[in-house]
Amino acid sequence: MDKKTCRSVSAAAIALVVFVLFLSNSAFAQSAKDEGLNAPPPQYQIFDLGVVLMGDTASQGVGVSTGGVVVGRSVRTGGAQAFTWTQAGGIVGLPNIAGRAFCVSNSANNTGVVVGTCASTLFGTARLPIVWTNGAVSQLPLPAGETLGEAYSVNASGVSVGSINSGSLQRGAVYSGASATVITQTTAGGSFFTTAFGVNNAGRVVGIGIDPSNAARNVGMVYDIGSSAAIEVGSISGTNGAIAFAIGNGGHVVGSTMMNQGSGLPFIWTQAGGMVAIPLPTGTTQGSARGVNSSGWAVGTASSAFAIPFVYDGTNSYRVADLIPAGTGWDLSMNTSSSAQGISDSGVIVGTGVLNGAVHGYAMVPVAVNVSVSGRIFTANGFPIRNAIVSITGGNLPAGVKIQTGSFGWFSFAGLESGQTYTISVGAKRNTFARAAMIRRSGRLSSTEGGGHM
Question: Could you report the per-residue pLDDT of 222-231, keeping only the tens digit for each?
Fold first, then answer.
């Protein structure tokens, strides 16, 4: 009986992957080899976010929703205006709230809700937490007796997080509907939230806290809305604390880990795997990760003499300056103003750079790259199988493609679009396929074990 075993796979910006499926013909499959072919660096097209009003002196890209709604601010003499930007619609200014001339949008969801902060100075004096709903501005509620607050992140349900008050009285806060709730839950060691920087669709909140037994130490905090306690993300060797800046819908938390108030190193954290250092881009000595998407790709800014925005694909860190075409006029590596602040689920990177001498926000949109997937079909005894039918569907192949293996069991599919998901299936007479043996791992394709019998 002819059986087929399928597994969804992703062709992730690779040049060639050797895909080995072990077949069983009354035999057991062996381990497949990880060919160790790293993905080449991703490539991007860069867009200028522009400014809201002609005459504005600068703009900054601050974040991006999972679906690609960019947020930031456009700066002018005596004021700053929040905005959204999309690739289809360009920049759209959001109204300032009365009495506050300096506003910034920090986060957006995909249904028209944007949150941020408005203040009386560019540096946050007399700041208030703000929400824009389909372009209409209003202040988020503050707890009774409080006059200061800020909002940093909003999820798909419209729940946003930030902080209230300032100085030693500053505390993390959750804004939901017509109420604001101070996060009073502490870690087992008594550390408490001072600012909540991120919230995902599951209601998990991340930010920074204080350890009452060592006020010099930063505490990276994680709290699930409605739970009775918070937890700490920990630190890596040589450090004793962290700041958690963002969380994705996949549960990945990113930020910076450091010794007390010293310079930091970027990290990524998961509940299952704990904290892992993100490699610094070439030529830098310190940095911080500031945004993460649902797949665990992260962005941030490292530094040496200059600010170096980077993107991390789960394996490698790349300087974003190296991922855009030459001759664009953008400087993303030879100044102290550049940053990478957010990354959408489709890989759009948002931050700030210098364009022909002016500080402007940018959006970097991935460019599809054609890749190939090749492989070889063996029996469990190591003999190649000719004339096996190998099928691939998905991605940019709505009708699918079928080919036969050659005399030595080889097959190859060309013209696949990177970043897409494909399903490969194999069938051959007198052979049963034990298990598909391809996975997507950190921007590469590799083999894994497969086994079975007839």
Answer: 999 999 999 9
